[in-house]
Automatic annotation (TrEMBL):
InterPro entries: Histidine_triad_CS, Histidine_triad_HIT, HIT-like, HIT-like_sf. This is HIT domain-containing protein. Coiled coil: none annotated. Residues 88-197 form the HIT domain. It comes from Minutocellus polymorphus.
Amino acid sequence: GIPKLRYSATLVATVARLGGCESLAISPRYTNNSKVGLAGRFFQRQQQHRAFHRTSSALKMSDEVEAAKKAAAEYDASDKDGAGPPTVFDKILSGEWDSKKVHDDELCYAFRDINPQAPTHILVIPKKRDGLVKLSTAREDQKDILGHMLYVAGQIGKKECPKGFRIVINDGEQGSQAVYHLHIHVVGGRQLQWPPG
């Protein structure tokens, strides 16, 4: 005959710093008591795993947006010379802070991001900022360094991520730029989604 169906709820609870309150997601599932077995439990765990990672991604995105807003305010409040305030990249370039070097030449430096968003996440930065804080404020005489950085990023991506990679340049507050020293993200090592956040 027809097996009896039982209503059950899969509860995924996360305490999140999302708007300062707790976030609770309840996802109802219809399960077949006699047939749920391994496949059913696997499906439920897979759904829970996806829900957890969606929440985790939302939290990371929220943190990045807040960091970008703070960085934009600091940049806007600086002395208006176009250079912006000193950044963490100045400390890395001076050797004051350690970094995991990937590439180093006379024009740019590449290193592994300390907060990677994928298995491979590398930043390429100009050694001399020279007012190159955002792509949108780049001068005509900086075309050579921009081309060189993009070429280096492509070579790193080809070597580190043979199945493909993404190049990202965040620009300004709404572009979620958190450091006002132009940098190129090389991201890969997993299937990236589209559209980006």
